[in-house]
Structure to design on (498 residues):
């Protein structure tokens, strides 16, 4: 059975259902033509135009998915989603009622769909032509990668709706982003820095935002975005729906949440407990000088199909890629010093199998959406114990098995002890490799004096009255013509990976 979707040219037709019951000799028995109500103009990036294509009929969505409008149900079913995850089951009914929400959930729980689906339904039910530079919904994300993934979800679930969206972030020229904003968007996905830059230049106005969503707030606070968040908040109307999502809910985040939400619903999805079927962990004690040789020897194992290697610093990631290449192992690196085009190319090559190894700093530890990673290598142990869990959680997804291998030098012994405290057990050690360091194994060194170990410190607020020129119109001018005042402002031990 197949369904046919077509973007028809009848301006007043919203949706056409064609049911055909042909004779026994015909194979296609069920057709559906979907026409979005559009003006005859070139679609802006992010517009939803399904074109004309055949798709296998999917199963009818169950549970809370059944409360969604048909166009969104169809998008969900085409993606193969039938049964909602726990966070979707708990969030969607409240969000459809317009309630504020505080959600605590890890990556990989279906959180993005939990807020994207009801958001799209709200906008579709009260559809209107989007105004220039004035979104109706704002989704704030800490990193470019996460923002792009959320944008992909909006595109996927809204492909049969007449809604416009775009994603903006730094690291690329702003011209194309401004061009799309000037056409009008319903949903804007943004990172804080670029959002505030374009607000200050007059390209974005948030005074008509109906829904404000913050994703991975804990990550944003770690990156020093608290002042940027408050500045964005000051631009948004107080009468709005606010959704606040974080992997953890520390006291500082509780205080921040209380300043944003009104009578919120609370949804908490507890992390899965460690099971013997998730991630096999082990630690290898090795001196820094031997880490490259040890890594190359491990990556030569045929069992390593697709691996992420985490380093603590950007220049280390570049060095590791070069060292591996000299051993005939070709990988790619992703970190904050890479341009957005280079990062996108690297991730695309890794996902499509052009590279077997991705070397990354912690910019990729959260929100990286690749399901078939077999191994995670901690070339450097992370300073924060929680980051270890986020890193190894990139493997053993969707019920698969995975391996996490950590290198520990004499200087890193303290970090390993902190990780083991968090896990509640020791990470088994493998001392059989040729580069084993007994000194590192027996080391009782305390935490280094500079515990951040070269990592970039949380930045100063990027939104100020006299900095960060990115081109385009002069600050204080408004291309839309509206006058608007702005103030400058180790094996055997396993841990869940889902």
């Amino acid at each position: 059975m197949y369904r046919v979707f077509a973007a028809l040219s009848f301006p007043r037709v919203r949706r056409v259902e064609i049911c055909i019951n042909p004779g026994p000799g015909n194979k296609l028995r069920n057709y559906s033509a979907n026409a979005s109500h559009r003006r005859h103009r070139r679609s802006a990036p992010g517009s939803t135009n399904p074109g004309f294509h055949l798709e296998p009929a999917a199963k009818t969505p169950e549970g809370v998915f059944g409360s969604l409008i048909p166009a969104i149900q169809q998008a969900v079913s085409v993606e193969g989603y039938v049964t909602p995850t726990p966070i979707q089951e708990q969030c969607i009914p409240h969000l459809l009622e317009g309630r504020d929400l505080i959600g605590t959930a890890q990556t990989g729980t279906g959180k993005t769909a939990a807020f994207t689906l009801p958001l799209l339904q709200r906008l579709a039910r009260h559809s209107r032509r989007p105004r220039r530079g004035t979104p109706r919904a704002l989704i704030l994300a800490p990193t470019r990668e996460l923002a792009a993934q959320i944008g992909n979800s909006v595109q996927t679930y809204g492909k049969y709706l007449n809604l416009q969206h775009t994603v903006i972030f730094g690291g690329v020229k702003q011209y194309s982003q401004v061009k799309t904003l000037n056409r009008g968007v319903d949903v804007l996905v943004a990172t804080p820095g670029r959002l505030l830059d374009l607000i200050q230049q007059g390209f974005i106005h948030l005074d008509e935002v109906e829904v404000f969503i913050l994703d991975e707030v804990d990550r944003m606070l770690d990156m020093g975005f608290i002042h940027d968040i408050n500045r964005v908040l000051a631009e948004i109307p107080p009468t709005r729906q606010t959704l606040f999502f974080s992997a953890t809910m520390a006291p500082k985040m509780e205080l921040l949440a209380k300043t944003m939400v009104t009578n919120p619903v609370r949804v908490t999805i507890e992390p899965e407990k460690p099971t013997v079927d998730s991630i096999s962990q082990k630690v290898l004690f090795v001196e820094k000088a031997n880490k490259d040789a040890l890594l190359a020897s491990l990556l030569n194992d045929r069992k390593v199909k697709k691996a992420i290697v985490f380093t603590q610093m950007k220049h280390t990631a570049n060095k590791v890629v070069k060292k591996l290449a000299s051993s005939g192992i070709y990988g790619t690196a992703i970190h904050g010093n890479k341009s957005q085009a280079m990062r996108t190319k690297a991730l695309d090559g890794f996902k499509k199998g052009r590279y077997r190894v991705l070397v990354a700093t912690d910019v990729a530890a959260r929100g990286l959406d690749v399901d078939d990673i077999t191994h995670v290598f901690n070339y450097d142990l992370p300073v924060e114990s929680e980051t270890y869990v986020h890193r190894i959680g990139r493997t053993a997804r969707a019920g698969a098995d995975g391996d996490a291998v950590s290198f520990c030098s004499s200087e890193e012994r303290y970090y390993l002890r902190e990780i083991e405290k968090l896990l509640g057990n020791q990470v088994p050690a493998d001392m059989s490799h040729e580069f084993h360091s007994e000194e590192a194994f027996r080391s009782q060194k305390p935490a280094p004096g500079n515990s951040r170990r070269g990592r970039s410190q949380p930045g100063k607020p990027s939104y100020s009255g006299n900095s960060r020129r990115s081109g385009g119109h002069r600050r204080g001018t408004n291309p839309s013509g509206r006058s608007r005042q702005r103030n400058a402002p180790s094996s055997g031990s396993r841990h869940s990976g889902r």
Q: What stands out?
A: The chain is about 30% helix and 15% strand. The CA atoms of residues 62 and 83 lie 5 Å apart. The first strand starts at residue 2 and ends at 5.
